[in-house]
Each structure stands twice: as C-alpha cells, then as structure tokens.
Amino acid sequence: MADKKLRVGVLISGSGTNLQAIIDAAYENEIDVEVAVVISNRQEARGLERAEKSNIPAVWVDRTAHETFHSYNMAIRDALKMHEVDLVAMAGYMRLLGPEVLKAYPDRVINIHPALLPSFVGASSIHDAFEYGVKLTGVTVHFANEKFDDGPIIAQMAVRIAEDDTVESLEAKIHAVEHRLYPEVLQMFAEGRVSVEGRIARIAPHPEQTR
C-alpha cells in the first residue's frame, strides 16, 4: 500500500452505510485512503455516530445557522480545508453542492448514485427503476457538478432485477454493490488513475496490468 494515503472528506445526510463501507475498507488496508472528516447537514445523521466511533472528526454544518446558501457552502469548504482533504466523496448527501466547494476541489468531488445514469436521476431512483419495469439497473459513481446526478461517469456496475424481486430486495442488492464499488473507485483515485476530459472520465490501467 502507498506510504501517503488519500485524505477523503465524506459528505452525508443519513445513516452512512456507504461511509461505513469506506471506513471498513480503509481500516482493513484494502484501500490507500484515510477518512479525514465526515460532514453532515443533519445533526441526527447516524453517519456522524459512525465517524465518532471510528475516531474520525464528525462535523454538523447547520443550514439554518447561515443566512445564504453561499455562506453554508463556504462553511463546508472551510471544514474540508481545515482537515486537509484531497478528495470529497458525497455518500448520501441529499443537497446540491455549491460552487464554493466544487471550485475549491476541481475534478475532486465525486458522488454515488443508485442507478445507471443518465437513467433514473433523483432521490427515488431505486423505486423508479423498479416501477418502470427495467430488467437491469445498477450503481454509478460520477464527478459532481452544479446539477443533480449530471457529472462525468467514472464507474458503473449493473444489478439485474429478478422476477421475484421487491423494491426492498432490489434496494438491498443495490446497496451491496455500492459498498463494493465506492471503495474501489476511491482506490483508483489513490493510485492517480482517474482523469477527466470534458464529459469523459478516463481510468488508466492498474500499474500491475502494464507490466
């Protein structure tokens, strides 16, 4: 593993299961990543408890304490800067991230979405895919920009919808894939293998594959 680990700031709004998958992978030295800080817009988010149990700084940024969206996003940016973050990973952060953070971390803010973008954008994507009747959905990790679920796609993994699936069983399958894919993508960043050209994100081969 690398001597210097990638310092990741994780943004959450809820239970933080993807955060936990990242924490676990880092703890087991499966990825060259250190979770430097966890930031939430909700004080009651369980993900903050997960961070504290792992001795990771846990920060609540209260939107109501800020008069403007600009001020709120500046507070998030300042918290990330204070903890010397290299990469920002949105993991169930249910707000649009402002330019204050995006410009501070160009091409260094990523998000995970429980569908195969550009299909089924939005917060109800698992339910929407199930109700539409598609036979294949999945998980997408993409660069974040100033639109919901719109940035260049870094990685995707498909999930087949079985005839006997329910929304609940599909959700469980989706989350299981998320918990594998997100740490894998973070490791790609740790290895310096991810770049972006316009709308296209490119993944360089693993060093061992070029030998």
Textual characterization of the structure:
The chain has helices at residues 17-27, 46-53, 69-82, 99-102, 125-132, 167-190; strands at residues 6-12, 33-40, 58-60, 87-90, 109-113, 136-143, 153-160, 194-197, 200-203. The protein is α/β, with parallel strands linked by helices and 211 residues long. The chain has a single domain, classed as 3-Layer(aba) Sandwich (Rossmann fold). The strands form two sheets. The chain has a seven-stranded mixed sheet, with helices on both faces. The longest helix has 24 residues, at 167-190.
Summarize the model shown.
33% of the residues lie in helices and 24% in strands.
CATH architecture level-2 label: 3-Layer(aba) Sandwich
Radius of gyration over C-alpha positions, nearest whole angstrom: 17 Å
User: How would you sum up the major sheet?
Assistant: 7 strands, mixed
Following the backbone from N to C, one meets helices and strands in this order, namely EHEHEHEHEHEEHEE
Q: Would you report the number of β strands?
A: 9
- End-to-end separation: 18 Å
Q: Taking all residues together, what is the mean pLDDT?
A: 95
Q: What would you call the structural class?
A: alpha/beta
The CATH topology: Rossmann fold
